[in-house]
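Batch job 17 of 40 flagged for manual review because the log was empty.
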Amino acid sequence: MNNLQRVFSEQAEKKAFDPAHRQTLRFNIGKYETAVKKGVLQYSHIENARRYAARQKEHCINNLEHHLITFESRFTARGGRVIWAHDAREAVTAIVKILKSHGVRNVVKSKSMITEELELNTVLQGNGISVLETDLGEYIVQLDNDRPYHIITPVMHKSKKDIAELFHAKFGLNPESTAEEITAFVRAKLREKFMQADAGITGANFLIADTGSVLLTENEGNGVMSVSWPRLHIAIAGIEKVIPSIRDLQVYLPLLATMGTGQKVTVYNSIISGPAKSKEPDGPAEMFVVLLDNGRTNLLAKPEQRSALRCIKCGACLNYCPVYKNIGGHAYGTTYSGPIGSIITPHLKGMEYKHLSFASSLCGKCSEVCPVKIPIHKILLLNRRDAVKEGFRTAQEKRVMTGYKMVMSRRRLLNRFSPGVKNLGLNLFFKKSWGSRRTLPHFDGPSFNQEYQKAKVKRLK
């Protein structure tokens, strides 16, 4: 067991047996599940929409180079600039260089998981640049020196009481403040920051190749203001975010909203095609798009697993995953948690994270609810296979599995062991991994195979 796996196991056990944590998570996820059940009713046949979205995304991934080049040419023709970043270091180096060359002191940021992947806030602050999260959930996370817990809902792990107490400690608000009162306070506070900001940094929900545009979808309007007011806008996107045509949004946007939050469509959907033109009163004077690889081509090179790049980051697989519901987001120790994080992280960060692909019940619910039909449960198994092929297993795992295979593939050998010997073997090899809170299975009397053979002999007589 490597250190990453050990930390994961410790954190998972801590969270899984924390009643308050489980109650909060169950309550918050339950609201999403109820909303999604209502949201899907807008479709007469949601399977048709899912099949179309999956097919379009798969075609795009298989022709990724073509669509990225098209996006770059169309975007630069509109006055924008594109930066290709091989890894996180190249991306943050380029971003810091741009900000310093423009004399930026204050940055406002809209919600973006890819900036979490880059640990961008820490890098900017280390370079003397103030950065403020403007999404309400992300703002709460930043105030509490915390990390996002969920792809869509960063504070999934916090109750209304937790948040009210945080604002009381930080700003002296009434500890009994309502959600509406806290929201109004944050809105007024952030409005000043938008007006003072020198640059806005956002992610990108989609990159539209045929128009050379960035699509941002959000519910609070902070993304629009992060783009409209500062003189400089930097959008950061994984290379898998590109889609061929603006027409595809008619399928992707409702699916993303419905499966993510149960909405028919998200409140604010902004299509940004470069810096502001001469007659446009709002928008940045300069705009950059950073296209990030950071391990994505490793996944692209795996024909059986590359479908994971279809992901549109709706968070549905997290909301329905029995493992995530028990251990939450932080236990995974990665930017992307839950089922989708478990299948992409070993490719983005290395097979040292292979343990995440084992953190699954393989119930298949994640694949069932995925709006772009990623076969998540199948990819989990493929990752496990690749981890073994690439030598990411301990000597003890090798010995145990070799012995297990030898015994289980020889029925007669297995029948020779008495129930007592089998129970001893379970205790020796599996008790620790089985956990202290579960009772090991107990062998007692003849095996099913032995009983079956006896019955078979009686029938023949």
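Reviewer: the log was empty due to a logging misconfiguration, but the result itself is present. The domain at 1-35+308-393 is CATH 1.10.1060 (Fumarate Reductase Iron-sulfur Protein; Chain B, domain 2). Unflagging and moving on to job 18.
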